[in-house]
User: Fold these one by one.
Assistant:
Number 1:
Amino acid sequence: MNITKENTNDLNAILKINITKADYEEKYEKAIREYKKKIKMDGFRPGMIPTGLVKKLYGTAIMLDEINRLISDSIHNYINENKLKIIGDPLPHAENNAIDFDNDTEFNFTFDIGLYPVFDLKLNKKEKYDYFEVKIDENLIEDEIKYYCNYFGELKEIEEITDEEVVVEGDLQELDSVGNIFDSGIKTEAVKVFIKIIKDEDAKKRFLAAKKFDIIKFHAKSAFPNDTDRAGLLKISKEKAIENNSDFQISINKIEKFSHCEVNQSLYDKIFGEGTVTGDEQFKEKIIESLKVKFENESNYKFKLDAKEKIKLDSEVELPSEFLKRWVSLVNKEFTPEQIEKEFPTFIEDLKWQMIKEKIIAENKFNVIEEELKKEAANVVKYQYAQYGITNISEEHLEPMIAHMLKEDKTVNKFRDKILEDKIFDFIKENVKLETKEVTLEELQNMFKQ
């Protein structure tokens, strides 16, 4: 067998393969013998069918299988031995001549291959990259404090209904068509009714005028037209709530009102851990610090989007587009030509970025160690708890959660990709001229909409 490579240009090449009878004869004859043992044919005992008959009936198909296997293995070995960097898979050349397996003993095949491009990263300290940093103003600080006061607030019992912010609690009962309690109807204890979400104004007025131990009647669908809200109130399925058209009554047992948590030592301890913050100024500093971390993620995300596009443009990564379009079409046979045409530009851009990332990782020998994976897992857990206002998780509590997360291969791979991506963008930041520009949160958020 002989394989030669001819470069069409810097991005495309063809592999010419010459196969002689000596290359496949032994394996072909062995395959014939194996097949002969398996097939059954009337008039012959198992395994006793004449070899010539087997070849006549099945020889071409067996020959084709053996040659295809030989070609696949040979191309694979040739690429590895010659350390060729290719994109996609070799494709049969469009102008391959028809092959006569019945009469020919020597065969020639031609395959197209896409070559991995050679390119330079255009990163230097003269290149300006914008980095947008959110200005932490008094409004942001105040909003963050309000968020914590609201999050750590609680319902407190009061004696009378003062306004729409009041919540009443009582036992709910379904009424029949004449206004009496429906014995086999819906009955629910300790139901909480938020007066401000009542849509029926007459019903709302009756609640606002009520006192503890009063009984209020209302039509559920009119007072709570939202099917999900009404299902939650009646503690039934949404489907049953939609079907139900009854009046209900509630006997008020408790009146409550939401009370925001006061800004004091108790709030400091709940947010940052006991004794971590001991005064107003220190509390404000910690709020500013947490806001910077919070908005740094958004700033970094914006930088990544911009840097990614600029580096792709500056690095001028050229690809064998026509070859890749053929390859994408073959490996995605479920896609129509129109779908391929529509999605192909995005595929090309993603491929360029993947090559740039691989180059940065290889040239800088970036890798990921176990401690980095544990740190990333810890950050994820802390972020999840922070969504519920919990920011002071102990290491003892973190460790089993981290261990559980790192048992999942899919999760580990996700963390590894994230860590490598962070290292890539840290590398970019270090090798360009970073221009920090202070913007408001609204201005930064508007940039994502453009």
Number 2:
Amino acid sequence: MKITVLNPVHCRIDKKYVPIIRPCLKYRASWFKLGKKIKTRDGKERRVGGTAKYQDAYFIGKRSGQFLSGFLPRVLKYCIDDMNIPTQVIGREKLAPDVLIPAIPGITFKPFQKDLIIKAANHQRGVILAPTRSGKTIIAAGILSMFPKARVLFLCHSITILKQTMTKFKKFGFDDVVFVGEGSKDLSGRIVVASIRSMCSIDIVDYENLFDIVMIDEIHHLSGKKTEYFRFMETTNAVMRLGFTATMPTKEEVKLCIEGSLGPVIGELKVNEAIELGIIMKPYITLVSVPSVTSILELKKYKGDKGIYRKGIVENRPRNRLIMTKTSARVKDGKSVLILVKQTDHGKILKTLGESLFDLDITYIQGSTDSDVREKVRVAFDEKKIKVVICTVVWKEGIDIPSLDCVINAAGGKSEIATLQAIGRGLTKIEGKDETEIIDFLDPYKFLAQHTVMRLQIYTKMDWL
């Protein structure tokens, strides 16, 4: 069987082989079918109820025989090892590194970092799994040092991480760095650091053949075919494609979207390995029991202004008082505290409560906060000139605060990725810092109790409880 690599995005096989290949590119697609229409009292129609639907789907064209190039290693393994089909690949491209040993002035790579850099340079497509605080920007810079003539695009999902990455690249000696974001569409530099949203606003003809290497930070945001990341990766002809994340998604369709766009996992440093190596700290978990409120126990719906999340998390005054009580005690001990919230008004409620009843000086970072202000706050927080910061998801990932002492999960939630990313803000091991505390809450209400159990399972799996 012959596989033709059409370009860095797609491969093709003869359509007679499609039925043979389809099983290795299969996933279970799901969608929600809305229920029947009913008339409301005001005469308007709306749909009520609905059911989840499932069917088998495939990442290969039935008539075209085309599949995403990131699946090539999977297809080859399936054909050769599982089906014993002699297979030939035609048209595969690779970049030849100009430098065989990675080097950054003033940086000595840790053995695991050098190992991941070499694997990336050899495989050239795929995902690198490394926990928060393991130096993913250093690993990325090490890879770039081996390809000094290549045009590079480094994609981020937020302006804060974009600026942080750009600053670090320049610190590492990469002078020709520009950025796309906040109105700038500068593609003139050898290295372009860009927000995915801003990059998607640029005409395809301006970048489709511009880059040799594309790197994506926090690749788990490529969470489906309709995401900006997935659509963008179908429009660039970059040969080398790499993604970084601490935890891969568990949903099969999402994992296949990532693999098809980039490639398989090519290198990994596990969280507990990083702890054993002394790269990050093992956190200790403080669990706080939340008293039950009868009116909230009687609620049945999760969402909405009168839903369980709103009443049990956002507006739950006993729970919010517990959060501020724990915060106040840590601040009196000279510790810095980061409080994570999901909804912006939850942050406002906590800030008001903390300042009025506990006499705390609190800074609140949310989506509307100017990116320059966010960076100034980050620096002051790391220097402990600011002791308490409340933040929404804009600071849940990729923010470097090595000195952080305590993370309070005020938002709840059940996602392993979100939980580990949030905790990762405080796991950096530095001189003078003995421990990192994670404070979580045992919520007693419908849905929320299940979410609590799922977070406890994550902590147990990591051997943190």
Number 3:
Amino acid sequence: WRRDGIPPAYAHCGAAGPGPDQILEPWPLHSRVPDWQTAFAHALTRTVSAAMDVAGGRRDDIKGERVPLRPWERALSWFVSSYPLLGGIAAGMTVVADAALARAHDIAVAAVDADLGEIYVNPLLRHTDEEWRFILGHEMLHAALRHGERRGPRDPYLFNVAADYVINGWLREMGIGEMPEGLLYDPQLSGLSAEEVYDRIAADLRAKRRLATLRGKGRGDVLGEPLGPVRDFVDLDEFYRRGLTQGLDLHHQQDRGLLPLGLVEEIRALSHPPVPWDAQLARWFDEFVLRPEPVRSYARPARRQASTPDIPRAGRYFPPGETQRCTFGVVLDTSGSMGRTLLGKALGAIASYAEARDVPAARVVFCDATPYDAGYLPVTEIASRVRVKGRGGTVLQPGIDLLRRADDFPPGAPVLIITDGDCDALRVPREHAYLLPQGARLPFTARGPVFRVR
């Protein structure tokens, strides 16, 4: 084509038809040449930003006007961009502003659901940006410090009130926003933990129940049950723990100011979470469910003896004859209040640990209104082929007495009691432990260890 020119068949196939698609003209010397690459980059950035706004609901279409942020959205964005201590937590939280939902669940100002990672606010209220920062920081600290999980057997509302006193004091010390009128704050409680404040206010229940949280009077703003389906998150404890610890490190690295000592201590404590319930149960098995130990003897050479003929090595073996095998008892609450999840987790853990300790069988007793003796069951069948009987009331003491009077149950064998806490007062005259769901409590003082299943 360079030598003969463009063939007539292709002469009009260009982008501009018969003419050239580029107009090349000399640029005037007194004018600056445009930077087309920079202009293209800026235009591409604006287009991508507009597309992200459309995906996030801030624009109706890519050429429409940008919808201004609402006050609580500006407050949440401020944490992400300007406050590293809570920025990681704020990035994973969602603010739900729904007047109908707030009215249906009696949410006066705000509430938080740590499991869903959502903060519910009442959009009909009017607060300044500084007040919304205080409100959102309050709810994020509730979720991040796991106040819903930490209350244990305490009264949920009173522990919520105690945590409000502590959090509001911290936020005032850190200078985050402006505290709205009517929130709980007492300078005399400064420096105390939520548990210590709870012990103080629990003495005057009538006066403290008239106090109001962000959700309203007599209602806690830490929601115990999700208002919607739980999303597929990573482990919640790990998410909140990582967000707070990394935020604390960034806060110190950037010299963002001083923090309350109590808050720093609680964040540091999150870096050392308590031992999980199944690990505690395994330690209990190691201590009280003893496995038969082999005997060392030079009469039986070790397997490594052939590699070192000149060095005598003692071998290990189980002596012939009858060997006393270890066992344990399981008293299982099969009343209607017991959940399938608790039964599955508890029985599965018991079966796995018993098998690891070479326990051939365990004595299982089902209890509701009356005890049902299932006898000795192989540990492999405890979690898979056990048919739960009963489903009436909850009376466990007859099951304990049945094991105590049984001639074929060793007097030194421990007993593991699985219940939801809605039972009678128990007297167990031997070594024992309890398995309870998280948040449940026994109606009596337990003399044995209590493991809480999550």
Number 4:
Amino acid sequence: MAIPNEFQQESEHAVVTRCEIDSKSGFKSHDLYVLNERSYSNQFAPMYFNRLQVLRPRVSHSATKKWANESINGTKVVKRDKVLDVKPSEPSWVIGTVYMEMKYKPNILEEVSKNNVNVDVSGIESYVDQDLDEIYLEDESGRILLDGDIFKSTVLCTGVVVGVLGMETKPGCFTVVDIVYPLMSAQKPTRASQGKVAICSGLQFTGIWDAKHALLQDYLTGELGHDSSQLTRLIIAGNSVRVQEQDQVQQRNKYGAKNKSNFSQQSISQLDSFIHALLPSIPVDLMPGESDPAEISLPQQPLHRALFHKSQSYLKSNNFNTLTNPQWFQFNELRVLGTSGENVNDVYKYVVPDSLQVSRLPIVEASLHWQNIVPTAPDTLACYPFERDPFTMTETPHVYFIGNQPRFETKLLSLERGQVRIICVPDFNKSGQLVVLDTDTLDANVVTISS
């Protein structure tokens, strides 16, 4: 498939004098998700226990602050250190990790025991069955069933560390009347910055020409008759290429399961040409996503440099960066955390489909309260077997964006130790939209590219 000339002639683009932004790569969180050495000998249990150990003191701080003088039916509540220390009819609070037993949630061990090794969870839209699903709280000692009306209005999923207040009303069942989350991690006190950053996701190059991509390129390079001098960088948040179904390589491994390839030379070449045409005008940061030729396990590692033949020379500078998913950014003093969307899309499967009215903002907001951006890993989202959970937040960003979402949404969220601008970045292939973030005011606006 020949690449259209619009992606080839960089000399045709006007030179734009842009506002400069200092994109720092030396702060401690920048390489948080880079796997320099890999060992798959570890089990996943240490990751769960580490998450609980790290967040338990922070949940205890929140619980003590809120429930220190609390009473239920005239009886003062007491703290129980372990889940199995809860006593019948005694008002108490306890800390643990949420586990949700759900009818439609995949269980890999169960599937393997049935000799069904071809487990594909990508097509599952929801794990929910309101009549059969159960919520448990577990720690090192065991687990206890939770119930209560509070769960009808609370966003929860497997892997979240919480404190629950209530009492055991029947054997093995704890009725919850209130929930607390970990103390918010510290936020960098200053966020001085200037200029604007463009964020897009879901470009989904297929090797077939699409006018939206050409218009997007013209917008970013300032050729649509507007002033693009304030745009300092472009972040591409995953799902940049898509393999046509008829082109997918499907072979069976020795266990009989199908192996699907996310690699398409035509798609990659088109992406490479698109980025190469932009680079003389605007720096680009590229994150992988679910449909890109990268490992499926989180954190996804940077797309290999060998994929970008035309843009190769720019990889030696800060003008073109292939990054991980998730990824921390720093623009001047502004700290930004972003993902390509798999974490939020998976949590969405844990909630009643109509309860959030398609909005992902409640989930993004909840993940900040949970202080963990990928709580469902490794239960329903594949991840590397860490000993320490890197998805537990030790710093709260000024901006948190999620790529490949159904629609643009944004909110300035006020937390106890700072404010966070949360942004749902729409899928460009479906919406023709990208987001422009003002790093000074934290305003986020959507731009629609119509073909």
